[in-house]
Specification:
The complex is a heterodimer of chains A (444) and B (290).
Chain A lengths: L1 H19 L2 E7 L3 E9 L20 E10 L3 E2 L2 E2 L2 H19 L5 E6 L5 E10 L7 H9 L10 E13 L2 E4 L9 E12 H13 L3 E7 H9 L2 H6 L1 E6 L4 E7 L2 E8 L3 H11 L4 H11 L6 H5 L1 E3 L7 H4 L2 E3 H26 L8 E5 L8 H9 L3 E3 L18 H11 L19 H12 L1
Parallel strand pairs in A: 1-6, 6-11, 12-17, 17-18
Antiparallel strand pairs in A: 1-2, 2-3, 4-5, 7-10, 8-9, 8-10, 12-13, 13-14, 15-16
Helix pairs in contact in A: 2-4, 5-13, 7-8, 7-11, 11-12
Chain B lengths: L13 H11 L1 H24 L2 H19 L5 E2 L1 E5 L3 H11 L5 E2 L5 H9 L4 E8 L4 E8 L2 E7 L2 E6 L4 E5 L10 E3 L7 H10 L7 E7 L3 E6 L4 E3 L5 H15 L6 E5 L7 E4 L1 H18 L1
Parallel strand pairs in B: 2-5, 6-9, 9-10, 12-13
Antiparallel strand pairs in B: 1-3, 4-5, 6-7, 7-8, 10-11, 11-12, 13-14
Helix pairs in contact in B: 6-7
The chains are: A alpha+beta (444), B alpha/beta (290).
């Protein structure tokens, strides 16, 4: 537990230091596109009040001063597979964003879609010493959580106390100062592959920048695509990206489940490419221009020129009806949604008070997907676009940028303030001098 | 038909990327955008200025410019007009100032000229200014000589304050001025002038005043007559002598010296023939009496 504490605090510290300088870049490593935004943090509102423990850290408003996107290279299923290629893509996108912002950024916060995220719910419970919850009690209860054995080669990237319970009262977000005897906490852990993070770290380092934080794309896209009451009452965000589909469930403004399906829009494109025997770029073009999931009688008559560059006239002049295209796309999208459904079922999404499902991500723009999703996922489905952010160009406001924008919001309003609380002395491990200092600090 | 294109990589090379980041660093940016051009210009300028010919040219250029400015007709002084000076003083002043016309008014050092002119004995005060139409106006107040003083150096003119105001070669040059002689005259000019004023009734006979022992006056008349005045209140004593002269016409008699140094009563010294005559007269008178 001490290890978790240290890593979480180190991560938080790093991000704070980066934000202190007022400039930070957020980098979304997607499978189809990479996006980089340069954020400028300036107006720090002192009296900003937020729910939870948020008042402790108010990195006021930010402004997007540079945005660049490029086609992703070297990334498969949201993980880095070719370091050199990825590095080049990062260079392209970072240089573009810097050029637009006309500043140099040294710190970057990145988000990863893949890397096999796994969710764990952990709980901790302590007896209060003097009947009132102090901040060190919160540290103590966080430290008392028994860690699940998530195996070697895994790293915790999100660890958030979702719920505090004081005696029989549950649903507290900030129990400090309240009176009770037993304090317990429910915490959500999200672990990812260490290797994926290390690869990312290396790529960023080779681009002369420092990685100031890592977030899961499942988490960040939900932050930007879910509206506040959805986050509060319970909702699932399904970010259907190019290479992978991220699923996250929110309750009480905290992520309580995050997962990833290694299927996405690229699979649909490759289906079209294979099924209709056309090149991958042509398939992508036809998918985005004419794609759909629900065929009507009109679609039988709408003929699509497939195009091609093979030199074979008959092959290059083929035409298919839109219904045929839909026939290729629909099964794959159904499969993706069904897979997402399975994950949601496994997470216990059924038991949430509100079962709103929000679809976002680039592939959610397929016309009619909403109707298809409501058949598979339930009636309460909507398409989500990311929230508006100051300074963001129009071109970067689509659902494909949900996780990028969410990452910016995560950088501005992180939800891990709880790790600021000091670890109780008995759990600090063998550092006598530090212990003595702490004892003096606590008792004088 | 598919074209075989060379693969285009939109990614910047690592060097390009780093240079771009360097360029975005404010310090380097300022250095390259302002520091470097300034340095280059500075170096070029210095290299150019190191050449002595260039330095000479620059100096000449600025000197020429200055000359051209100073020698504009507006600033030139064409002539000098001296006011309030007599002929000889005028000449002295012109010689002292020694200006060749036309001269630029920038090069005239008026305070220095003023002191030069004021050093001339005959000049009491002077005002010099560059007037309209390039005329140097010199206003002079001359010292008015009141006395002629004969001393070891010759004949000197003294004004009423006892300041030397010129020299003359011969007594006849300034026959109008009374003559004084002796040491310590300068300090007692006022007294001397008063005595001369008092001597007005016998002005035709007065040769001059002689300072004796730097403390009292002798009036020298023609025929070698001397009036010895006291140290204190010489005017009153002189008045007494003149009263005596008016009453008894003593000064026309054969008297060498009228000595009134004691201030109250004059002592007369007769010339030798007069004394003989006087003795004879007394003898005759005694014989007649007898």
């Amino acid at each position: 537990m001490s290890y978790l504490y240290d890593t979480q605090r180190a991560m938080r510290q790093k991000r704070q230091n980066a934000l202190q300088r007022g400039l930070v870049a957020v980098l979304d490593l997607g499978t189809t596109k990479m996006a980089c935004m340069v954020l400028q943090f300036d107006a720090r509102e002192e009296g900003e009040v937020r729910l939870g423990a948020g008042a402790m850290t108010s990195h006021g408003s930010f402004r997007v001063i540079g945005v660049a996107t490029t086609r992703s290279r070297g990334v498969k299923f949201g993980e880095i597979t070719a370091m050199d290629e990825t590095e080049r893509a990062i260079r392209t996108v970072v240089q573009g964003a810097q050029k637009m912002a006309n500043v140099r950024v040294d710190h970057v916060i990145a988000c990863l879609a893949g890397a096999e995220p796994r969710s764990y719910g952990v709980a901790g419970e302590i007896d209060l010493e003097n009947g009132t919850v102090t901040s060190s009690d919160i540290g103590r209860v966080l430290a008392s959580c028994n860690m699940p054995d998530y195996g070697a080669g895994r790293e915790t990237i999100h660890a958030m106390p979702v719920n505090f319970t004081l005696d029989h009262r549950s649903g507290l977000t900030d129990p400090r100062g309240q009176i009770g005897n037993r304090l317990s906490v429910d915490m959500h852990l999200l672990t990812v592959d260490t290797q994926a993070i290390e690869n990312l770290l290396k790529c960023v380092k080779r681009c002369d920048m420092e990685l100031a934080g890592v977030a899961s794309a499942a988490y960040t896209s939900a932050i930007s695509a879910l509206v506040e009451d959805e986050q509060e009452l319970g909702a699932a965000c399904i970010d259907i990206g190019g290479g992978s589909t991220s699923i996250s469930v929110f309750l009480k403004k905290h992520m309580i489940y995050g997962d990833n399906v290694r299927m996405g829009g690229d699979l649909v494109t490759s289906d079209i490419s294979k099924g209709l025997q056309m090149s991958y770029p042509d398939a992508e073009r036809i998918k985005t221009l004419h794609g759909g999931v629900i065929a009507t009688s009109l679609d039988d008559r709408e003929m699509i020129e497939l195009g091609g560059n093979t030199g074979d006239f008959d092959h290059d002049r083929r035409r298919i009806s839109r219904a045929e295209l839909i026939g290729v796309m629909r099964p794959r999208l159904e499969e993706i949604l069904e897979e997402a459904r399975k994950r949601l079922d496994a997470s216990g999404f059924d038991h949430l008070p509100s079962q709103r499902i929000v679809l976002t991500g680039g592939s959610s723009q397929v016309p009619g997907l909403e109707g298809l999703a409501s058949k598979i996922l339930g009636q309460n489905v909507r398409l989500g676009r990311p929230m508006r952010v100051q300074g963001l160009p129009q071109a970067a406001t689509g659902p494909a940028f949900a996780s990028t924008i969410g990452l910016a919001m995560h950088a501005a309003h992180p939800q891990d303030e709880c790790w600021d609380f000091d670890l109780p002395i008995e759990r600090m491990g063998g550092k006598p001098l530090k212990k003595a200092m702490r004892w003096f600090k606590d008792n004088w | 038909m598919q074209q075989v294109n060379k693969a285009y990589d939109p990614a910047p090379s690592r060097v390009k990327y780093k240079l771009h980041r360097l360029w975005l660093t404010p310090v380097y940016r300022a250095l390259i955008r302002t520091g470097l051009p300034v340095l280059l210009i500075f170096v070029a300028l210095m290299a150019w200025l190191r050449d002595p010919d260039v330095q000479q040219k620059i100096v000449t250029y600025f000197e020429n410019a200055q000359n051209a400015m100073e020698e504009r007709p507006e600033f030139m002084v064409q002539q000098m007009r001296i006011q309030g000076a007599s002929e000889p003083v005028d000449k002295l002043v012109r010689d002292a100032m020694n200006i060749t016309f036309p001269a630029s008014s920038f090069r005239l050092d008026l305070p220095a000229l003023k002191t030069t002119v004021e050093d001339i004995e005959a000049v009491e005060t002077v005002s010099i200014l560059v007037g309209a139409k390039g005329v140097l106006q010199v206003g002079i107040v001359e010292r008015v000589p009141a006395l002629l003083w004969r001393n070891d150096d010759g004949l000197t003119l003294l004004d009423a304050q006892g300041v030397v105001s010129g020299r003359v070669d011969a007594r006849q040059d300034r026959g109008d001025l009374p003559l004084v002689a002796g040491l310590g005259v300068e300090q007692n000019i006022a007294e001397a002038l008063e005595i001369f004023q008092k001597l007005a009734p016998i002005a035709g006979r007065v040769r001059g005043l002689m300072r004796k022992g730097e403390r009292r006056w002798n009036v020298v008349l023609d025929r070698g007559q001397v009036l010895m005045l006291p140290e204190d209140q010489p005017i009153a004593a002189l008045g007494r002598i003149l009263a005596l002269h008016r009453a008894q016409d003593i000064l026309n008699r054969d008297i060498l010296v009228v000595d009134i140094r004691d201030g109250r009563k004059p002592i007369l010294r007769l010339s030798a023939p007069a004394l003989d005559g006087f003795k004879k007269l007394r003898l005759t008178a005694a014989e007649e009496d007898n």
